[in-house]
TrEMBL record:
The gene is TRIP10. This is Thyroid hormone receptor interactor 10. It is found in: Cell membrane; Cytoplasm, Cell cortex; Cytoplasm, Cytoskeleton; Lysosome. Residues 15-282 form the F-BAR domain. SMART domains: FCH (SM00055), SH3 (SM00326). It comes from Bos taurus. InterPro entries: AH/BAR_dom_sf, F_BAR_dom, FCH_dom, HR1_CIP4_FNBP1L, HR1_rho-bd, HR1_TOCA, SH3-like_dom_sf, SH3_domain. Residues 186-205, 300-341, 440-505 are annotated as: Disordered. Residues 332-341 have a biased composition (Basic residues).
């Protein structure tokens, strides 16, 4: 009898395999590549701006104003996603300040050329080399993982081929064994061939299992170690570039303050713009602009081609399965795209933005819904104004004919009905999109440990305040949260040691995620809400905060971005 290698296969099947082609990094690597390139382009644009500015200032203020117009963003701020970054906002504000004191620029031309242009141009070259190195590292990691996947595919095909050959050899040996005209030598030869093929299939199975384990290990290292480290390096590089660019903005104002006291007001505004560059906030803005809301993919399951081999040929048994038919399992030929660096297919833009990732779809639908509500409110206000005007005309005919207002009133009513239907349509789409986001978020949170309980030493009045705030927030919330276990009480008794509640906040914080404080001692908060920090996390994972509209309670520390006084 041939040794059964299924124990190894079962162990491999239990180790879940990540679906590389459907990775959550599919678009993010390209986004980072575009953003870092945009950042370097902005740095180069700024250097070029200052260089040309020194030339224009020596000629006259008119040329300076032309330069400002040249570098002012062409698109309106609401249509330009780059305007959300503090770097871009500071740059625009600097251009506006430069336009205000046109004609006073000749005295600063030489200093700007040396202190800004040369330094930032040199720094830009260093950043380009560092960026190139990081992206080359990422692509090498991709190629290594791709090579491992090809080896896995080859071993799987070999395993399948050997299984089929072993099954074929077993059937041949069985047929000869039952054939009364076959010689004993032919039967023995067929049995030996069946044993050999079965042994080869077993070795192929072991090789496939080992290759699968190796690929899963390499893939896990790729997604949980290599790529996050590369992304962290790119973020650090981009934040350093942004900080340096902000310092370059500051140099522009500092140089002018030294020689042009008459325009100190304008220069102070430019200094404020330079200080407004917030590298961390820009990174968060980038994340909010492009986060998809997708959950990480599941694992590739093991495809076992050895099911027909459960019985092994022997001198006394070479039969087929009980139904008389060999059981052969084919290979799944469907293959999805897994790599995060692949080119995106051209998508068709739909009215409900379903072509976008869930988080982006939700934001776009929310934006469209707000626009429709504003238009609806405008039409309703216009309808009320027309009604009042019609009443005035009816009471005072000499002021106008009431019938002349009927077409406008009818048009307004039609617009209101149309907008109401659109609002209902977008509300339905938005509810569906939010459910998708919450579902994906729940899948992701399900893989992590739930937040710990709040401190047992929470004061009683804090608990009551938080409950009232929770009820107020619960009425305004459209959907319940997806976190598990939030309906259970956070604590049931107080510690003997009681720390007195501080009379005033010790800092402030911003809610990164929505939290529905439905349990005792907690308080609800909305994503992006500003809160007062009343008590720091004491190691249990919960922080006590106060809402602006009143009410205190505990929220998960991991849901906050905290800033102490």
């Amino acid at each position: 009898m041939v040794r059964d290698p299924l124990a190894t296969i079962r162990r491999v099947q239990e180790e879940k395999v990540w679906d590389t082609w459907n990775s959550p990094y599919e678009d993010q690597f390209e986004v980072l590549e575009r953003h870092t390139q945009w950042g370097l382009d902005l740095l180069d644009r700024y250097v070029k701006f200052v260089k040309e500015r020194t030339e224009v200032e020596q000629a006259y203020a008119k040329q300076l104003r032309s330069l400002v117009k040249k570098y002012m963003p062409k698109r309106p701020a609401k249509d330009d996603p780059e305007s959300k970054f503090s770097q871009q906002q500071s740059f625009v504000q600097i251009l506006q300040e430069v336009n205000d004191f046109a004609g006073q620029r000749e005295l600063v031309a030489e200093n700007l050329s040396v202190r800004v242009c040369l330094e930032l141009a040199k720094y830009s070259q260093e950043m380009k080399q560092e960026r190139k190195m990081h992206f080359q590292e990422g692509r090498r990691a991709q190629q290594q993982l791709e090579s491992g996947f090809k080896q896995l595919e080859n071993s799987k095909r070999k395993f399948e081929r050997d299984c089929r050959e072993a099954e074929k050899a077993a059937q041949t040996a069985e047929r000869l064994d039952q054939d009364i005209n076959a010689t004993k030598a032919d039967v023995e030869k067929a049995k030996q061939q069946a044993h050999l093929r079965s042994h080869m299939a077993e070795e192929s199975k072991n090789e496939y299992a080992a290759q699968l384990q190796r690929f899963n290990r390499d893939q896990s290292h790729f997604y949980f170690s290599q790529m996050p480290q590369i992304f962290d390096k790119l973020q650090d590089m981009d934040e350093r570039r942004a900080t340096h660019l902000g310092a370059g903005y500051g140099l522009l104002s500092e140089t002018e303050l030294e020689v042009v006291p008459i325009i100190a007001k304008c220069l102070e505004g430019m200094k404020v713009a330079a200080d407004a560059v917030n590298a961390k906030n820009d990174s968060q803005v980038l994340i909010e602009l492009h986060k998809s809301g997708f959950a990480r993919p599941g694992d590739v399951e093991f495809e076992d081609f050895s099911q027909p081999m459960n019985r092994v040929p022997s001198d006394s048994s070479l039969g087929t399965p009980s139904d008389g038919r060999p059981e052969l399992r084919g290979t799944s030929r469907s293959r999805a795209k897994r790599w995060p660096f692949g080119k995106k297919n051209k998508t068709v833009v739909t009215e409900d933005f379903s072509h976008l990732p869930p988080e982006q779809q939700r934001k776009r639908l929310q934006q469209q819904l707000e626009e429709r509500n504003r238009e609806l409110q405008k039409e309703m206000d216009q309808r009320e104004a027309l009604k009042k005007m019609k009443d005035v005309y009816e009471k005072t005919p000499q002021m106008g004919d009431p019938a002349s207002l009927e077409p406008r009133i009818t048009e307004t009513l039609n617009n209101i009905e149309r907008l109401k239907l659109e609002v209902q349509k977008y509300e339905a789409w938005l509810a569906e999109a939010e459910s998708r986001v919450l579902s994906n978020r729940g899948d992701t949170l399900g893989r992590h440990t739930r937040p710990p309980d709040p401190p047992a030493s929470a004061p009683p009045d804090s608990s009551s305040n938080s409950n009232s705030g929770s009820q107020e927030n619960k009425e305004s919330s459209e959907e319940p949260p997806s976190e598990e276990g939030q309906d259970a009480p956070i604590y049931t008794e107080f510690d003997e040691e009681f720390e007195e509640e501080p009379a005033s906040p010790i800092g402030h914080c911003v809610a990164i995620y929505h939290f529905e404080g439905s349990s005792e001692g907690t308080i609800s908060m909305a994503e992006g809400e500003d809160l007062s920090l009343m008590e720091e996390d004491k190691g249990d994972g919960w922080t006590r905060v106060r809402r602006k509209q009143g009410g205190e309670g505990y929220v998960p520390t991991s849901y906050l971005r905290v800033m102490l006084n």
